[in-house]
C-alpha cells in the first residue's frame, strides 16, 4: 500500500468500526432530526424518520460500493483517479468543508449545551479548550488506532445506556399519542419531514475516508452497515418514545428531545434528575465523533497538499477550529444555520448522494472498460 | 521524573477545570424552592412567591417532632414583568442560590387566571432546563396563592408538599405541569386542574387554623380561562372519565339504605354509538367494586342480592357521572378528551371540527355507561341484627 504513512498503522477491525459508526451516528441523531421531523410531520414524524433512515441506509450502501471499488486509496486518492487531479482536488474540498462544519457545530453544540444546563459560569472557552485539546491529543498520539480503541470501550456503554434510556418513562407513555397515523399530515408533510431531517441523522461521508484503514474490507463493510442500522433503529425508537411521552406538539418544540426525556424520568418518585448521569456520556459520544472528523480531515488534507506530516496538520486544524468555534457565536447567522434551506436542500444531498453516485458510476464504467 | 511531575500538574489542572469547579455551588449555598405561587400584580406585573425550605429548621425524626414556633420554611415574594424577573428580585435578597429542581407545586391564584393570559406563564417552565416539569399545578380560590404557600400544614412540614401528597394519596394523578402543557397543546382536549381553598380547620378545642383543602377542580378552555368549577365529588368522577383516576370511593343509596364501595382499577373507554355518526359518543367507565359498608339490611352473601347490588351501583354511578358530563358540556371545554378520540377515529371529519371545538363540543351527544364489576362484598355476610 503506497499511501500508508509512518506512524499510522492501517488496522481498524470490523468490531471497532461498528462502534465508531454507531456512536457517531447516535450522537448526531440525538440532537436535531427529531425536532425537524416533528415540526413538519407532527405525530407521523416517526414515519419521516423511518423514511430518512432508509435513505441513509441506502446512501451508506452506495458509499460502501464506491469504497470497495477503490479499496487501495482514501477519498482524496481515488477522487483524483476518477475525476482527474484538478477536479478531484476541488470537489474533495467540499468534503473538507463539510467535516469542518460538522466538527464545529458539534463542538459548539456541546459547549453551549453545557453552559445552558449545568456549567452556567464556566467560560465557553474552557469547555471547548478541554474538548479540543483532548481530541487533538488523541489524534496526534494515536491517530485512528487510538480513536477506534476508545470507541471500542465507550461504545458498549454508550449504545446500551442510550437504548435503556428510552424505556425509563413507562408511566408517562401513551401510545395513542401517535394516532391518527397519516390522516393529519398527509404524504407531503411526511416527505418534507424526512427531507429536512435525514441530513442530520448520520454522516456516511466519513466512511469514504475510514474505509481505507480497515483491516478486512469484507467484515468492515458489514460492520459499517450494522453500525448504521443500530443507530437508525435507535433513532426511530427514540422518535416514537418522544411522541409517546410528550405528543407531537411538544416534541416539535423541544430543542434537545433526548435530554428532555431524561428530565422527565421519575421512577417511584425517587430516581429523578438522572440527566446529570447522561451528560458525561454525551460528551464521550461527541468526543468520538469529533475525533473521527479531525482525524480524517487532517489525514485528507495531508494527502491533498502532499505535506506528509498529517499530525502537524491535525494540530493546526485544531487551533483554527478552536478559534472558529469561539468567534462564530458573534455572528448568530454563521453559527445557527442548521435549518438553512441551502444546506438542507442542496449541500447535504450533493455531499451524501450526488458526489458518491457520480463516483460510483464513473468507477463502474472504468471497471467495465478494463474488463 | 520531570515528565511525571509535568504530567501530574497538567492532569490535576484539567481535572479541576473539567469537573466544573469554576461553577461549583456547595449544597450549603443552595436554597430549595418547594413551592411557587403566582399572583396578579398591578400594572400588568406578576407577583411570584417562593416557598423556600430552611434545612436547619426541619424537624428530623430524632427530635421527636416537637411543635416548635419556628417555621421550617420561608416565603419570599417579589413582583416583576415575568417569572424570571420576579425570581431574580427574590434572589437578590437571598444568601443562597435558589434552585427549582425539586419544586413540587405551582399555585396560581384564581384572580391571576381571570385577569391574565396564563399561557404566557408556561414558556419559562418549558424553556428553562432548571425546571423538572414534574410539579403539580393548582388553582387557589378565594385568596391569593401567596397566602396558601405561607400556611403551615398540620402534618407535613411544608404546605406545598402536603398539597401534592394529598392529591397523590387520594388517587388524583396526572396534574404535573408536563401533563398540563400536553393537554393545553392538544386541540381535542382541555386541562382540568385541582382547586384548593383556604378554610379554617378546628384542630383542637382552643385552636382554629387556616388550612388549604382540596375544594374541587377547575375546567379550563382552550385559552386557559376558567369556565366552571366542579366540586370534589364531580371532579373525581370527571378524572375517572378522563382516564386519570386511580382510586375512587362511592356511596350510593340502595334498597332503603346506603352502601359504600371502594372502586379500584378505574378505566374508561370511549366509543361511537351504533352507526358512523361521530356526534353520538358512549363513554364507558369500568371499575372493580369492593363493598365496605352496608346499611340496607340485606344479606350480601346471597348471589341474588349481589347481582342486584351490582345493577344498582351501575345505575347510580351512571346517573351521577352523566350529571357531571352534562354540566361540563354546558360550559364547553372538553376535558374528557372526546375531541381527541374523534380526532383519532375520524381524522378527516375532525379537520372541519377542530377549530372552535369548545362550542361544537356542546352539541355532542355523550352518554355514560357504567360497567362496574362487584368483586367482593367484604368479610361479613348479613348485617348485624
UniProtKB/TrEMBL annotation, chain B:
Keywords: Germination, Lipoprotein, Membrane, Palmitate, Signal. Residues 23-197 form the Spore germination protein N-terminal domain. Residues 215-378 form the Spore germination GerAC-like C-terminal domain. The keyword Lipoprotein applies. It is found in: Membrane. This is Ger(X)C family spore germination protein. One of its GO terms (biological process) is spore germination. It is a lipid-anchor. Belongs to the GerABKC lipoprotein family. PANTHER family: SPORE GERMINATION PROTEIN B3 (PTHR35789). It comes from the Bacteria. It comes from Paenibacillus aurantius. NCBIfam families: spore_ger_x_C. GO terms for cellular component: membrane. InterPro entries: GerAC_N, Spore_GerAC-like, Spore_GerAC-like_C, Spore_GerAC_C_sf. Residues 1-20 form the signal peptide.
Amino acid at each position: 500500500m503506497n499511501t500508508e504513512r509512518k506512524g499510522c498503522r492501517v488496522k481498524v477491525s470490523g468490531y471497532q468500526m461498528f462502534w465508531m459508526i454507531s456512536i457517531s451516528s447516535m450522537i448526531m441523531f440525538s440532537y436535531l432530526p427529531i425536532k425537524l421531523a416533528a415540526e413538519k410531520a407532527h405525530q407521523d414524524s416517526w414515519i419521516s424518520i423511518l423514511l430518512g433512515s432508509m435513505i441513509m441506509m441506502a446512501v451508506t450502501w452506495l458509499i460502501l460500493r464506491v469504497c470497495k471499488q477503490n479499496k487501495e486509496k482514501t477519498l482524496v486518492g481515488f477522487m483524483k483517479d476518477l475525476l482527474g487531479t484538478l477536479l478531484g482536488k476541488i470537489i474533495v474540498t467540499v468534503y473538507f468543508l463539510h467535516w469542518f462544519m460538522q466538527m464545529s457545530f458539534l463542538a459548539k453544540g456541546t459547549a453551549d449545551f453545557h453552559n445552558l444546563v449545568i456549567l452556567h459560569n464556566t467560560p465557553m472557552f474552557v469547555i471547548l479548550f478541554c474538548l479540543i485539546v483532548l481530541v487533538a491529543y488523541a489524534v496526534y498520539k494515536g491517530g485512528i488506532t487510538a480513536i477506534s480503541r476508545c470507541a471500542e470501550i465507550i461504545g458498549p456503554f454508550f449504545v446500551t445506556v442510550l437504548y435503556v434510556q428510552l424505556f425509563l418513562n413507562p408511566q408517562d407513555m401513551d401510545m395513542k399519542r401517535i394516532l391518527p397515523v397519516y390522516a393529519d399530515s398527509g404524504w407531503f408533510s411526511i416527505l418534507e419531514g424526512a427531507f429536512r431531517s435525514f441530513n442530520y441523522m448520520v454522516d456516511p461521508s466519513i466512511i469514504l475516508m475510514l474505509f481505507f484503514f480497515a483491516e478486512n474490507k469484507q467484515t468492515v463493510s458489514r460492520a459499517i452497515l450494522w453500525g448504521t442500522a443500530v443507530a437508525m433503529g435507535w433513532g426511530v425508537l427514540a422518535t416514537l418514545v418522544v411522541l409517546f411521552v410528550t405528543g407531537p406538539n411538544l416534541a416539535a418544540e423541544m430543542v434537545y428531545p433526548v435530554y428532555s426525556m431524561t428530565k422527565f424520568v421519575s421512577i417511584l418518585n425517587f430516581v429523578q434528575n438522572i440527566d446529570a448521569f447522561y451528560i458525561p456520556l454525551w460528551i464521550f459520544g461527541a468526543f468520538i465523533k469529533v475525533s473521527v472528523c479531525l482525524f480524517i480531515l487532517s489525514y485528507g488534507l495531508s494527502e491533498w497538499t502532499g505535506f506528509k506530516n498529517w499530525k502537524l496538520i491535525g494540530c493546526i486544524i485544531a487551533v483554527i477550529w478552536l478559534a472558529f468555534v469561539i468567534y462564530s457565536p458573534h455572528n448568530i447567522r454563521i453559527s445557527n444555520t442548521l435549518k438553512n434551506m441551502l444546506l438542507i436542500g442542496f449541500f447535504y444531498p450533493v455531499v451524501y448522494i450526488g458526489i458518491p453516485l457520480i463516483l460510483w458510476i464513473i468507477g463502474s464504467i472504468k471497471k467495465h472498460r478494463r474488463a | 521524573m520531570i515528565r511525571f511531575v509535568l504530567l501530574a500538574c497538567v492532569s490535576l489542572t484539567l481535572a479541576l477545570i473539567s469537573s466544573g469547579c469554576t461553577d461549583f455551588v456547595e449544597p450549603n449555598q443552595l436554597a430549595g424552592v418547594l413551592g411557587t405561587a403566582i399572583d396578579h400584580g398591578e400594572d400588568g406585573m406578576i407577583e411570584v412567591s417562593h416557598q423556600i425550605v430552611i434545612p436547619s429548621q426541619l424537624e428530623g425524626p430524632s427530635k421527636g417532632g416537637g411543635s416548635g414556633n419556628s417555621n421550617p420554611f420561608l416565603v419570599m415574594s417579589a413582583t416583576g414583568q415575568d417569572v424570571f424577573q420576579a425570581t431574580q428580585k427574590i434572589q437578590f435578597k437571598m444568601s443562597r442560590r435558589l434552585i427549582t429542581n425539586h419544586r413540587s407545586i405551582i399555585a396560581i391564584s384564581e384572580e391571576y387566571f381571570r385577569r391574565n393570559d396564563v399561557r404566557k406563564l408556561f414558556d419559562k417552565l418549558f424553556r428553562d432546563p432548571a425546571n423538572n416539569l414534574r410539579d403539580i399545578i393548582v388553582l387557589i380560590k378565594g385568596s391569593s396563592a401567596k397566602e396558601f404557600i405561607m400556611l403551615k400544614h398540620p402534618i407535613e412540614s411544608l404546605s406545598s408538599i402536603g398539597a401534592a401528597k394529598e392529591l397523590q394519596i387520594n388517587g388524583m394523578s396526572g396534574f404535573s405541569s408536563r401533563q398540563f402543557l400536553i393537554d393545553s397543546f392538544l386541540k381535542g382536549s382541555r386541562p382540568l386542574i385541582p382547586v384548593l381553598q383556604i378554610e379554617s380547620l378546628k384542630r383542637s378545642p382552643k385552636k382554629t387554623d387556616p388550612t388549604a383543602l382540596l375544594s374541587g377542580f377547575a375546567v379550563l378552555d382552550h385559552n386557559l380561562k376558567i369556565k366552571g368549577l366542579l366540586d370534589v365529588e364531580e371532579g373525581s368522577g370527571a378524572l375517572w372519565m378522563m382516564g386519570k383516576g386511580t382510586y375512587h370511593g362511592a356511596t350510593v343509596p340502595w334498597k332503603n339504605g346506603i352502601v359504600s364501595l371502594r372502586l379500584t382499577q378505574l378505566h374508561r373507554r370511549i366509543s361511537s354509538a351504533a352507526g358512523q355518526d361521530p356526534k353520538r359518543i358512549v363513554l364507558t367507565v369500568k371499575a372493580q367494586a369492593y363493598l365496605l359498608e352496608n346499611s340496607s339490611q340485606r344479606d350480601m352473601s346471597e348471589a341474588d342480592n349481589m347481582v342486584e347490588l351490582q345493577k344498582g351501583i351501575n345505575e347510580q354511578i351512571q346517573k351521577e357521572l352523566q350529571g357531571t358530563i352534562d354540566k361540563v358540556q354546558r360550559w364547553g371545554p372538553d376535558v374528557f378528551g372526546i375531541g381527541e378520540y374523534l380526532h383519532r377515529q375520524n381524522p378527516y371529519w375532525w379537520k372541519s371540527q377542530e377549530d372552535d371545538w369548545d362550542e361544537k363540543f356542546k352539541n355532542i351527544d355523550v352518554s355514560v355507561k357504567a360497567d362496574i364489576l362487584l368483586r367482593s362484598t367484604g368479610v361479613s355476610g348479613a348485617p348485624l341484627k
